[in-house]
Structures are given as C-alpha cells and as structure tokens.
Design a protein that fits this description.
It comes from Halalkalibacter krulwichiae. By secondary structure, this protein is mostly helical. The protein has one domain. The protein has helices at residues 9-30, 33-55, 62-83.
C-alpha cells in the first residue's frame, strides 16, 4: 500500500523509526526540554505508523515488525530514563 508521500507503509515505518531514534539520541544528549518533547512526539508518531502497518500487513515478514517494536521499546526506555 502506497501513501501520498510515495512510500509504502513498511518504508514509512522504517523511516519514522529511524527519525525517532535520531531525535531521541539528540534529545537525551542535550537534555533540552523542547527536544525531549519533539522526540516524544516523533516516537509516538512512529508507534502509530507501526500499528497502522501491522493492521494492513499482507505477507510482510513478522521479523520486521518484531524488530521495529524492539527498536521503539529501546528508544522509549531511553527517553523515559532521560526524563527522570
């Protein structure tokens, strides 16, 4: 399934996860409140993208979804630890 940006759902998920990971890394290094919030938003957006893709999956490798969930969980944990 292709979305308006021209990427299929899987590529969109991959890109949103990479973006979220990058933003979480930047935010946790700087500890800037605005960057932490932007990273939280990016992480939440990536989770939404993943859940949408999972609900529309057709013959997609389960390993991709498992890996994606693990990456998001790690980024989420990193962000939560930084906010303590």
């Amino acid at each position: 399934m292709t979305n308006p940006s021209g990427f299929n759902d899987i590529k969109q998920v991959e890109m949103s996860i990479l973006s979220a990971e990058h933003m979480v890394g930047q935010a946790t290094r700087s500890m800037d409140e605005e960057q932490l919030q932007a990273a939280t938003n990016a992480l939440n957006d990536a989770k939404v993208q993943l859940h949408k893709a999972m609900s529309h999956q057709t013959g997609v490798d389960e390993a991709f979804f498992e890996m994606s969930q693990e990456l998001l969980a790690k980024a989420d944990h990193q962000l939560k630890e930084a906010k303590k």
